[in-house]
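Standup notes
- DV: blocked on the single-chain target, sequence here:
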Amino acid sequence: MSTVLYRKYRAQNFDELVGQEHITKILKNAVKRDQLSHAYLFVGSRGTGKTSAARIFAKAVNCTNIGKDGNPCGKCTICKGVLSGNFLDLIEIDAASNRGIDQIRELKEKIEFSPNEGKYKVYIIDEVHMLTTEAFNALLKTLEEPPSHIIFILATTEVHKLPATILSRCQRYDFKLGNDKEIEAVIDRSSKGEGMKVEDSAKYLIVKNARGSYRDALSLLDVVFCGQSGKDKKITEEEVRDLLGLPDIVMVDALLTSLMNGDAKKALDLIESIEKKGVNLEQFVSYTLEILREVLVAKIKDEELEYDFYNKVAQKDILKFVKIFLEIERSFRGSSNQSLILEMIIPEFCVDQNIEEEEEEEEEEAVDNDVDMKEEEDKKPVVVSSDEDIDFEAIKKNWGKVAQAIKPVHRHLFAFLGTSKPIRCEGSSLYIEVPFQFHKDQIDCPQSRDVINRVLKDMFNVSCHLVCSVNEKAKPRMKSNADIVLKDIPTKESVNVASSKKKYFRPKMSAEVEAIFEGM
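- DV (later): unblocked, structure below
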């Protein structure tokens, strides 16, 4: 069985640990001067090198031929034993599966024994925040008075879950996510070692989708290498998009153009096409935000871009797009029907044709009768007359039928209303509740209210004032998105992503402009 890239090219000394020089410098000095602590805490996002650094440190403190710079030699029996996993004095514990007090008690019993081969016994406890409260209490006593031959290295991605008593007994080191240049260096090193050449545009895609994680970058590269034909030993942008199910600029440009043009049918067809091609919708929305960012920067700097929708869009429209796509990105986290959420942006830009036709007919009829009187009447708020009674229980029981009655008239409003529920009735007001602010915004628009009121009048013979609110308590369930970019990767045969010969050029962005989007 071949070794995956992130294990094959794992850093073996402090100098190979990319992007963490602020940590490796201190650890090398500690080894050289023999100023070692009994407990270390490595904090950082996944794939930033916490476990690799812990293993290198375990080699360094036990190496029989330590370098003058504090790096392990990599050639002695101990260094080779750590590399092969046969060094008995390095004990790695996964706290996610060994989180109970019994496991910590067993650990406490064993630490009293002297090292078998090296000078120190090193315990690496990964994802330490997963330990139970009882286990933390048991570990605390050991951290307070450890034997002189023991070194603990605790690693975590969620340091806020650790008790303050544990934090105060450890030397803390924070690992940073890699920047684009650092991630590129890792990709270059691995691809060179595998004898593969990666095009700059293909490398750019892998870097962006790694999101600062060195391990994710190598995992993505591994997938691309496995799917490569092997004929020319060259990875292209098209291959990366096909194998990872990533969107391309043609898809994004076409959707944004159709939305700008108010072409609802074309926008809907494009979303369906994107889904059929196996494109990950979370990736699509993220990539769309990148393009919108690029477009806004170009507008601010008065530069030209070769996107079809660029000349049609104003700065205020770009901000509207950004706001909506950010809301979609948040809504994806708790949804099992992402395509529906994406489709629901269409009414925001494209006026429903049925509504338009009905409004035109009403306007013509109003002109024939008495336009001025009709307009004045329409301005009055809709209220229940004194002799009308709202049967709240009947409306609540048949709310699903209300949504179904709206479906033939306004399909997108049907989708929004399907997430709502009536909660109470007070006087002339019917109160309903939705899970997201985005849904409330769509239901609150005048066209939507008009359709809902007409259906309520037809079904229950009442007119009422609709009050829509967001249920703040219904927080979307956060899903772990570790390795999300590898999820549902389509086979090469199943993916046929549209390609284009048109070249697009990305302008360089100044630090001032980059700051506008910090945290997006």
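- Follow-up: The chain has four domains: 5-174, 180-244, 249-350+504-516, 381-470.
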